[in-house]
Amino acid sequence: MRYGHFDDERREYVIDRPDTPLPWINYLGTEQYFGIVSNTAGGYSFYRDARLRRLTRYRYNNVPFDVGGRYVYVRDDVTGDFWSPAWQPTRSPLDDYECRHGLSYTRIAAARNGIRAETLFFVPLGETLEVWRVRITNERDTTAELSLFSSVEFCLWDAQDDATNFQRNFSTGQVEVVDGVIYHKTEYRERRDHFAYFACSEPLAGFDTQRETFLGAYRGWDRPAAVERGAAFDSVAHGWAPIGSHHVRLGLAPGETREVVFVLGYAENPRTDKFDPPGSQTLNKRNVRPVIERWLRPETVAGGFAALGASWDRLLGGLRVTTPDPHTDRMVNVWNAYQCMVTFNLSRSASFYESGIGRGMGFRDSNQDLLGFVHMIPERARERILDIAATQMATGGAYHQYQPLTKRGNDDIGAGFNDDPLWLVLGVSAYVKETGDRTILDEPVPFDNDPGSEAPLYEHLRRSLRYSQERLGPHRLPLIGRADWNDCLNLNCFSDTPGEPFQTTENVSGGAAESVFIAGQFVFAAKELAALAELQRMPGDAAEYRAAAEKMTGAIVEHGWDGAWFRRAYDFRGHPIGSSENDEGQIFIEPQGMCVLAGVGHGDGLAARALRSVTERLATAHGIVLQQPAYAGYRIELGEISSYPPGYKENAGIFCHTNPWIMIAEAMMNNGDRAFDYYRRINPSMREAISELHRCEPYVYAQMIAGPDAPTHGEAKNSWLTGTAAWNFVAITQWILGIRPELTGLRLDPVLPADWTGFQATRAFRGATYEITVRKVAGTVGRVSYLVVDGEHVDGTMVPSAAPGAVVRVEAVIEG
Ligand code: BGC
Ligand code: NOJ
């Protein structure tokens, strides 16, 4: 069953009923100001940091979880009937409803009793504000006397404090209302540097800024007293809960449409204002007033919206494909790329599954997010790499996370995830492959943000590898530390007293547990760094890293191979994990993917055998599960993984992030059919038809789909902010379609399903544009036989590089 459809032409997902299985959201903003918006206008906004600069309030564990949002009420001033054109919060029956989630904008439209209201939400480029453009049409044949009320509830900036520190916060709220603009200035007196504003394009009939006055005692957002009586109270908040609400009266002739613009924004005072005399309450509205006035004008709004669309044309224009599969086309051309951008911007901070107060930017996560993003805005990828690298410690180790506002590493959830440093090598190498910009390797970057400790980025990468090399366990495999990619595989946990849970953290770095996954990742990273070393003209280093990769490969083959698949790890006592010797958790997906990706076992049949085991033991119709058999009960010596009920998350859920590793591995092994089959199983657009089971948005990947051990097998959770986005983008575009940036140029090496006859693509690469056509006889399998580049025959699969600005026609022929 579907709850909407894709409008491919307009790059929108159209939801045609408000009661989706879960709130289906979109993101507003691409730079500094962001918002989450659900299909019923729920969600919140923030400036840069979802915790410390939260503009609007969100209540955790609310039901449904998108309650609290950008709400508009329409009231018929003759009958007193009022309703919400986004359905929430009044949930009045609507004559029709449609929500269109587009690229960084959302448009929600509905009609009731002959009045149609459509709201467009977006954040203009270069601004720290959001625009709501409400268009209201009288479809009756008589005049309509209407009231329009806007509403937002302000968060007192620090979202964590806002949700907990009531004794203080009920007494801090402050607003100012000047010339119809509501200024939320709580904390202004203390910090003296930031405030929010909420403005409306129409003359006001009234306003409210105190929540309880607007709503009335014992009422919720579904029936505000002000809306019910048809008149605002002009309340000015002192303490309690500041909100912003404008009341506008509109008389609409039959057929008439009116446009009302609301602008909600964030502003900072110039530095000098920080030294206002103590007690001064003056906000500096001088700077912000012209911005407000500009964005309240319909022409500015129209122009800003068009500019946003044009920017997405540019971003997505760099790679466009036409394949025999519409699900592939719409994911690659629009939605997967879009999700990569959102995930890159937000890391794992703010969604309805990530609280915005918990996790900062992940070291591991951000490096992987780069993979799907770098071709769109390489400059921002560069900046991100340098930010991440500056949090690396001199030992080569990493803080697991850093705060976007301060860019400092934090130890909130502990350090010692021993895979972290290696992701930096993979992120940097992806950047250099895309851009050819090797100057980044010479860029001076401090360790742990200490300016006295600068070293070239290349030196950071060397230390990343050394970090693993200096931490090998009894089997010469890398120590896992607190965990590797699988945060929940905590193998240095143990209890001296049986039955008594004890999670050691001190023991982490000294713990003897080893990871075959990190071993594979090390081989991968060492080979990448060897290639970068060659680029740096450091043949000694290159040879050293190749030798190190080989040595680690030896350790994997000797101690990491279980007979029919790669083992997962060794626990701190030296017992294998992910082995046929175990009763549960015999085979894990991660080392099968990572080792094959790294080139381990290609020549000797191990890779092919491991992939066969994945098909036989882990693949399901809804995707490939993380491990089997699931852990039935809690095992202290494995940590968090066994705390999940079977079939969820890391305990045998379909952890979508790992599936593309297997797709890539299958492509490397020449199995186009299997690679593409796995791709389709978790492709959200393919799963749209089973939305009642899948439940999450059909236009973006979710982190997890419940595995066969769960009663809800096939149900997705944790949509949007997941490494799944970047890795699937890499799997489909670089390995299945085979358009792959390498250090020396663009390779064209597709591994296609047998029944395809080819595909077409446009790819911008290092300033030139490549118009690609791949031809293959249906029914055949095989790799590219030769290329024809601007009419010239070229052997092999490397596309000769063209000058910036050139448009090159590339034909690839697969003879089968
Ligand atoms: C989850 C992981 C996640 C980790 C972050 C765990 O509870 O299962 O998927 O990465 O928390 O700290
Ligand atoms: C989600 C985290 O964001 C990611 O870093 C981790 O690798 C996976 N969970 C697996 O535990």
Describe this structure in words.
This protein is of the alpha+beta class and 816 residues long. Among the domains are: 4-312, Glycoside hydrolase, family 65, N-terminal domain (Beta-galactosidase, Chain A, domain 5); 739-814, Sandwich (Maltose phosphorylase, domain 3), CATH 2.60.420. Helices cover 28% and strands 26% of the residues. The protein has 22 helices and 43 strands. The strands form eleven sheets. Strands 1-2-9-10-11-12-19-16-15-14 form a ten-stranded antiparallel β-sheet, with helices on one face. Strands 6, 7, 8, 13, 17 and 18 form a six-stranded antiparallel β-sheet that branches. The chain has a six-stranded mixed β-sheet with strand order 20-38-39-43-40-41. A hairpin with a 2-residue loop joins strand 10 (105-112) and strand 11. Helix 8 (326-346) packs across helix 9, helix 11 (420-435) runs antiparallel to helix 12 (457-469) and helix 16 runs antiparallel to helix 17. It starts with a strand and ends with a strand. Residues 273-281 and 505-509 have low confidence and may be disordered. Bound molecules: beta-D-glucopyranose and 1-deoxynojirimycin. Residues 413, 487-488, 640, 649-650 line the site of beta-D-glucopyranose (BGC). InterPro entries: 6-hairpin_glycosidase_sf (IPR008928), 6hp_glycosidase-like_sf (IPR012341), Gal_mutarotase_sf_dom (IPR011013), GH65_N (IPR037018), GH94_catalytic (IPR033432), GH94_Enzymes (IPR052047), Glyco_hydrolase_94_b-supersand (IPR010383). Keywords: Glycosyltransferase, Transferase. Residues 11-270 form the Glycosyl hydrolase 94 supersandwich domain.
